[in-house]
Amino acid sequence: MKRKKISRNKFIQFLCAFLALFLLVFVFVFGVSSPIKKDTSFEIAKGTTVTAIAKQLYDNGLIDSELSFKLAVRGNGGRVQTGLYDVPAGASVWRIARMFAKGDIATVTVVVPEGLTVLQIKRLLLENPYLTGGTECGRGTDLPVCDLQDGDLFPDTYRVAKGTSRLAFLDLMRKKMEDIKNNWKRAGRVAPEPLKNWNDVITLASIVQKETPKASEMPVVASVYLNRLRKKMRLQADPTVVYALTNKWGDMRGAPLLRGHLKIESPYNTYINYGLPPAPIANVGMDAIRSVLQPADTNYLFFVADGHGGHKFSRTYEEHLKNHADWREIKKIKNKN
């Protein structure tokens, strides 16, 4: 009886030791071991089988065994999702299979600043190495994204999958601005007089956006232009002249805006034309839109830079001339330094 007990105990001890060893090997093979020495990318194309993926991973030195990957996939639900993945150095076969099962694809953050034109945004996207394709539609393509105008896109910080096409990214921006427009219409909001429609709102917002980087100042700038519109005064907004001069690029590239430029013949030149330009001169953010829909209550008709990133506002032309003289003195001092 004692011998049987001893034999049974030994067997149990042996079995426990074997199971413990098996568990350690399993954890090491599936959860620790990795041949990946540096971060790398791996793409799963649509329709690729698990067997084909396993072979690609093995051939690229990302796993030690095709079988272990297949077992890991089965352990994570038996599915993989298409896309481009960032596989970190030291990633185990289990971690890789889990990433593929969850669709934890590689992403990139793209920041599109407020106040850029469509041409500037397209250039920005073309400079991003993580996006793909061009920014123009092919011949015969008739989609909303193929005929973008300034004011159609919403500048923001976007997080998208690596490899996203640039046209798809532009359409994402377009749809976000379209949603903002539709929400405004559904809410039954009314634009402040004399603005008549959404185009008027975004057109004025684009001028405000280009005039000041300060969100706190935007409602005051908007009030100046609304007051001038109500009094049938020309807006005399420098950014509209820049837009006309640069053929819708909106950037003088460091060149000064001269008095002679203010005479350029263009429907966008608010120094020679009354009212708003025919369309927006840039793509705007929510602060600029809100500033037009909820402008400050002022009697201001003029403003000029104050030399500190903001502006001085005035009700009369005489006040404006004094503020302008102050600005010229500040510029002289800055130029000397």
Describe this structure in words.
It is a single chain. The protein is mainly alpha-helical and 337 residues long. The chain contains 11 helices and 6 strands. It is elongated. The strands form 3 sheets. The protein has a two-stranded antiparallel ribbon. Strands 3-4 form a two-stranded antiparallel sheet. 30% of the residues are buried. Strand 5 and strand 6 (311-314) form a beta hairpin. It starts with a helix and ends with a helix. It has 3 domains: 23-102, Endolytic murein transglycosylase (Dna Ligase, domain 1); 107-186, no CATH class; 198-336, no CATH class. The longest helix has 31 residues, at 2-32. Helix 3 crosses helix 4, helix 7 packs across helix 8 and helix 8 (218-230) crosses helix 10. The chain has helices spanning 2-32, 50-59, 66-75, 93-102, 118-126, 166-186, 198-211, 218-230, 238-245, 286-293, 317-336, and strands spanning 40-44, 83-87, 107-111, 157-161, 302-305, 311-314. 46% of the residues lie in helices and 8% in strands.
From the structure above, extract its key features.
6 strands; 46% helix; 337 residues; Dna Ligase, domain 1; mainly alpha
Short characterization:
The chain is mainly alpha-helical and 337 residues long.
Strand order of the largest sheet: 1-2
Number of helices: 11
Gross morphology: elongated
What is the element string, with H for helices and E for strands?
A: HEHHEHEHEHHHHHEEH
Poorly predicted ranges: 20-32
Mean pLDDT comes to: 90
For the biggest sheet, the summary is: 2 strands, antiparallel
Strand content: 5-15%
- Briefly note the structural class of the backbone: mainly alpha
Instruction: Compute the separation of the termini in Å.
Output: 103 Å
* Count of the separate structural domains: 3
DSSP helix fraction: 40-55%
Number of strands: 6
- Rg calc: 31 Å
